[in-house]
Amino acid sequence: MSVDTASAATTRAIVTDAAGSSSRARRGGQRHPATSFAGIALRTPYWVLTAGLALIFLYPLIWTAISSVSPLAGTNQVDGWGFGNYATLANYQAGI
Amino acid sequence: MTATLHPPASSPAPPEARGARRPARRRRGRRTHGALAGWLYAAPTALFVLLLFVLPLLLVLQMSGSDWPLLSGNQGPNFPENYQVAVSNRFFMDSVIFTLKYTVLTTVILLALSLGLAMLVQESSRWKGLLRTSILIPSALGLASASLLFYVIYSPIAGPFADLMASWGFTFLGTPDGALWSTIFLIVWRYAGFYMLLMLVGLQGIPDDVYEAARIDGASRWQTFRDVTLPLLRPTLALTTVLCVTGSLLAFEQFYILTKGGPDNSTITIVQLIYSVAFQGPNDLGVAGALSVIVLLALVVINIAQIRAFGKKAED
Amino acid sequence: MTRMTGRTRRALGVLAAGALIAGLAACANTEEPASSLADAGAEGIDDGSTLTLWTRAPLEKQAKLLVEAYNDSHENQVELTVVPNDDYVAKVGAAAGSGGLPDLFAADIVYVPNWVEQGLFQDISAQIDGLDFKDEINAGHLSAGTLDGKEHVLPFVLDLSMMFWNKELFAEAGLDPEKAPANLQEFADAAKAVQALNKPDTYGTATGLNCGGCLVFTWFPSMWADGEEVLSDDGTESLLASDPAKEMYSVWKDLWDSGAVLPSSKDEAGPTWTAGFTEGKVGLMFYPATLLSSTEFDAGVAGIPGPEGGASTFVGGDGLGISKDSKKAAQAWNFLNWMMSEEAQVGVLAKNNDVVARSDLADNEFSAKDPRLVTINEVAGDGDTPVAINFQQAFNAPNSPWLTLVRNAVLGDGATVDADNDEITAVLSE
To answer: Which chain C residues are Cβ-neighbours of B69 within 8 angstroms?
Structure first.
């Protein structure tokens, strides 16, 4: 469980989060300084894992947002970056 | 989602209803008036349940027993034949097997992953808040929109992996296995946040004392997880399993948009079969209705079995 | 509110329930002035009525042009609704069941026999017989809408499948850009020659191997070009396991195995099956003639050849008729009558490089400017439209036995053509 290697490294509370406060209390004794060598060595795989997760979940949405304004074959936008696709959408009449 | 639609017995009557009944009990002569008032108060809810649940159900039952072409309407009774035609459809067995396979895979992967994610992001920090948000964001998308988005992402022409696919000579949706796993990935992407949220709520409901006690007893992390977290999470696991199994058995949009049942008819789910019988070819609402009734009965049986199974474990 | 007596609350509850019921009842009471075909006369009525018209997305461009031209020149106004291709049958079916069809609606010509049999269209024989150019109207479309001698639809938009080739790529590959491949083997050789250029992202040919409709549209003509038939006359038996048919499959299998077919064709279910050619990345392909006006580079056009040569085409597109639910049939006929006029056929369709539905207008001022239009109009006369009640189920549906046959024959080992063909016949004769 990489949860525990990383647990409670932070002392900052996010006010809206109830789960966090209880678990911090629970594991309060295991704090290790983030700057120590062991701390960094333990935390690197955790950072890679979680960053990868965040990327996987965000990538499709980021890609959509970027391609909506980028010149892409098969769309009505061939003159570089801009909001041409949105203009097309606003004038689109093929309804259901 | 049929499992969540309970008959109106559980629908709460407005609080006034109880107030109105009390004087009736004191004065015997007004008892019938009190009952009438109770019915009237329940009427709006009952009316909606009747219009939106009971009537459509009766209509499907009638369809399933009638010769009912899509384009020309009810042509009179055709009772056992519709069911015979339905089960002898050349894709019936294939679609049942595929739907079960998909349901098992999706449920196992989705629940295991969402539990893992919930434990990963359980505590509070800026980074974990960000992580939690990114996992949850896809849940804000409709399933059909998400499917369309992945249709483009998987596309060998317009998608971001088009060049990769060309050089490796494979396509996401080109083989039966590829299509199945690509769809499961979409579903995990879309629903992991939702189930993670349910798991988080469940985890929060476990009191700290039991963890404390486990630590004092010298339990290892794995022992704590197996003997404390999992048993105490059972209500949540029951809820998520029922939701996920029912949702997967009724899978439609993702396959309708991503694979259309292909390649080579390898990804036809039972609901897709119902749709294609009704709208893509035979245009026979009678047979489609018969298939729907069969699915409804199967769902009722499966859900009773699941709820019993989880209930029995709780007694042990 | 808290001081309200029980009696008052009950009274309010009754009132609310009554209002709900009254509201439901009110929905059923909408009467409109009606006109029937008997009032129509030769030209129909143009009295400023609003007509509704449904069509499917692939014909959006032509439908919009026609509707705009009609609305500009008439009192009647047509409201056009364009429905995504895959949802069209479901939408029409639901509307037909509830009596909510629009005044006019278009139907893929291969579905027309079934829909006419189900009684979705009104009989317009008397009006069509009154047209003095009746014999010039495209016969394939007219006969698809004819049941027991009664005509129900007129050709709305004609979509023909033709062989298109990219002249620039032909010249690069050392082929004569002005000469069409004469038979299916020459077609395959030309595709391989373009493929042999080894240009990045450029392929010999393309098709939609997971799109039953595309394959019907582009492969049936190869059979007709050889004088073969694909269906029995009554549309209940499939003849797609004949020797010429097997020869056609083996040409395509050879093309696929040699890598001269756009790889995404394997999974192409329809939405982008023409994109490769339109973008200039495909040497030659069987392609819809409606896209001539959107093909910006120099393309050659000829009929689709068979294994032995010849040329034919699939006369597809949509027929348009007056729905059984229309209360404004006389006004709707006014639109149909105008649609068949020279003003609409030449002034709108031919002007947009589309095929006209009347052979007496095939030579017009616009086709004179582009000899390819003359070719298309000529081949249209040799084309065919298959008629079968269960056509959708047997050929167009995503799980159709026709797709199974083609995929086994081209992507598989090609040994199951006869068995797969029997499966098509089984579905056709259900």
So the answer is: 118
